[in-house]
Amino acid sequence: MSEKSQPPAESGASTAGDAQRAGESVLELSHVDSGYGSVQVLDDCSLTLEAGEIVCLIGPNGAGKSTVLKTVFGMLTPWEGTVTYHGDDIGGVAPADIVREGIGYVPQTDNVFGSLTIEENLRMGGVARDDGLERVMTDLYDRFPLLDEKRTAKARTLSGGQRQVLAFARALVMEPDVLLIDEPSAGLAPNTAQEVFGHVEAVNEMDTAILMVEQNAKEGLGISDRGYVLDQGTVRFEDRADQLLDNEEVSQLYLGGV
Ligand SMILES: Nc1ncnc2c1ncn2[C@@H]1O[C@H](COP(=O)(O)OP(=O)(O)OP(=O)(O)O)[C@@H](O)[C@H]1O
Ligand SMILES: [Mg+2]
């Protein structure tokens, strides 16, 4: 299905500019088994993310959704199968190197440092940058005025939605071309969740392909191009997001039957 259509990045670093060509597979998991210690979670899991897409990963609690993101981000090494990024095998590459390659990760919890200021959080997000930090910081402050207004405030003083914006911005300091986001709307009131989804779309429009895990399946699929339903570590359904939302079986089994 997907082709290894891009040569490996010569310097080991990719930029958003060279990555985003529509229809190309940026990220691919192929027949991946993965887990914790001796506990297997992912079982023959395959999925792709193409340039410019938002792809939503849904499924019941414990299905292995977060484990997919952790396996891509190098927190877990695939036991079997491959994880490729622009055609390069990145299975087991350490997170610090994955970040330099151009993949960002926004975990569900503990995604900002509460005792640090907004500015400090953003600068920490950019420690692996060789240059251009000031330019990116200026750009992010322009893009997210609420962070600009609160540069010197401690992150713990932010509301849940504002914290999520800071977490996105922290990941964007590295100018990733792929962003992995774990349950961005978790614990947020519906209005705030909608705002956060709006930010996800805005980030996507900045030429960043997004692989997003979301419990809030209807809203998550609502802003996505494609979706996957994961259950017991295996992909049970994959389709265009609107088709998944219309799929009766998916609806009955995974969307509460509505
Ligand atoms: N650090 C860990 N050590 C051992 N088992 C773990 C660890 N983290 C997760 N698991 C187990 O792996 C399985 C999949 O977990 P995972 O967090 O990927 O699920 P999920 O689909 O993200 O679920 P949720 O919707 O609750 O976030 C679960 O059975 C979980 O208990
Ligand atoms: Mg999870």
The helix/strand class is alpha/beta
**Helical amount among residues, as a percent range?**
25-40%
By CATH reckoning, the class would read Alpha Beta
Q: What low-confidence regions span 5 or more consecutive residues with pLDDT below 50?
A: 1-20
Instruction: Enumerate the distinct ligands.
Output: adenosine-5'-triphosphate, magnesium ion
Task: Give the number of DSSP strands.
Answer: 10
| CATH architecture descriptor name | 3-Layer(aba) Sandwich
Largest sheet geometry: 6 strands, mixed
- Give the overall form: globular
Order of helices and strands: HEEEHEEHEHHHHEHEHEEHH
CATH fold field value = Rossmann fold
What's the gyration radius in Å? 18 Å
Q: In the CATH hierarchy, what is the superfamily?
A: P-loop containing nucleotide triphosphate hydrolases
Beta-strand percentage range: 15-25%
**Contiguous helical run count:** 11
Fold and architecture overview:
The chain is an alpha/beta fold and 258 residues long. The longest helix is centred in the last third of the chain and has 16 residues. The N terminus is likely disordered. The protein binds adenosine-5'-triphosphate (ATP) and magnesium ion. Magnesium ion binds next to helix 2.
